[in-house]
Amino acid sequence: MDMGEKTSSTFNVWQLTCFGLLTTPLAMGGLAMAMYLPTYYAVDMGIGLGLVGGIFVFGRLLDIVTDPLIGHWSDGTKSRFGPRKPWMIVGILGFSISVYMFLAPPDSIGPLYLIIASGFYFLFYTILDVPYSSIGLEISPHVHERSLLASSKALFQVVGAIFAAALPFILGYSTGDALNLLAFVIIGLCFLGLALIFAFVPIPVRHITSPRLTTINAFKSVLADRRYRYLVGTFFIVQAANSLVAGLLVLYVTYIVEAPELVGLFLGVLMLSSAVFLPLWIYISKRYSKKTSWMTAIILCTLALALVPLIGRGDIVGALIISIIVGSTFGSDAIMPTSMLADLVYEKEQEGSRPLAGLYLAVKNSVSKLSFVVPMGLAFPVLGYIGFEKSGADDPNAKATFFLFYTGLPMLLRLLALYVLKIGPDFRVEAKPIEAVG
């Protein structure tokens, strides 16, 4: 068993709800960016797959640099409201503007507009998300409750993703009209979510008295943790696999299954199944360990991906079943690494370390965003070069190339992740009683 705890919980259901809600608009924007915007800007706006892929890769590479810096600066921020809240306020203002620019562009735009809009979006998303998510690593002394906090975020992430995925399907909107509406919904939910966190979530105000670490020394402190290196390395491998599957799903449904009108349904099913199976992964983590829960999900997803090439044109039921299985594993991929990271952060703080949650999380986020480069920087340019959006499944070579990226490479990556976890260290930490957050 991972960790049995006899102490009472810090958070009730309402507080868990208030904590997780802000994830919904962030997830809506994230899903739109990953699923709709590449194809929208490349095809509908006429910029082209290769150029759009290059711009998104550049934005993500910039993000990889800014994430750890913002995490480090957030850790060391001194204010009467604590280190996280000032960053979240600045972040939500900039994020709201950039969301409108990114999701509701003018009718006629070029690559320069996409560079500016995506750059602002990536930057302010980070400024809002890193301090917000860092709070989730710091506010509970209970091992199992950290999984509940991660699950709350994961659940609301699914809500946001399903809404964003299903909106065009439900309303019958074009992609452009759906993205325009989505921008306003995201902005409104962002302000609501932030208000609920500030009003109802007990966030500790930690006054930092120790000398501030330099950026280099802070990085050295984080990367010196062997368990953290294994955790982040495995997370990168799994996220790279997931980014390929998620990033190419629209093309899969459109050109392989040949059901473009059901793209929203497939995305919704993928996300909904990740929420439905969350209790299973939490049970396995509590009964055995968080590491065991994650490894089980990796194996299940690999087996499901092996069946994808058997699904042919018009086989909607078969494709949906595979999507349910694959989606169910995404829940474990989301909450287990985060909960394991919270355990490591808690242990560090109990050893007397200065706050490092922001940097710990930001490096993990950078790794996640780096994994996004795989479909954008590798798959999209190659598929664009061979003209997949024109030939689709009619060209056997183009179809084989697509399946290499959609199933073959993700399977190999997940098997590698399984091996790394198997030979890696034990991530469990000993729970020590600390004063509850008030």
Folded structure, characterized:
It is built from 18 helices and no strands. The protein is mainly α. It has one domain (13-201, 215-423): Growth Hormone, Chain: A (Up-down Bundle). The longest helix is centred in the last third of the chain and has 35 residues, at 316-350. Helices cover 76% and strands 0% of the residues.
Key attributes of the depicted protein:
438 residues, Growth Hormone, Chain: A, disordered N terminus, disordered C terminus
Give a nutshell description of this structure:
This protein has 18 helices and no strands. It is mainly α and 438 residues long. The longest helix is centred in the C-terminal third of the chain and has 35 residues, at 316-350.
Residue share in β-strands? under 5%
Using DSSP, what is the number of strands? 0
**What ranges have pLDDT less than 50 throughout 5 or more consecutive residues?**
1-8, 433-438
Largest sheet: none
Q: What is the rounded distance between the termini?
A: 29 Å
Q: What's the CATH C level?
A: Mainly Alpha
CATH superfamily (homologous) name: MFS general substrate transporter like domains
Averaged pLDDT, please? 85
Give, in order, the helices and strands.
HHHHHHHHHHHHHHHHHH
CATH topology: Growth Hormone, Chain: A
Shape annotation: globular
Tally of distinct domains: 1
Annotation field: number of helices? 18
Q: What structural category arises from helix and sheet content?
A: mainly alpha
From the alpha-carbon coordinates, what is the Rg to the nearest angstrom?
21 Å
CATH architecture: Up-down Bundle
- Helix percent band: over 70%
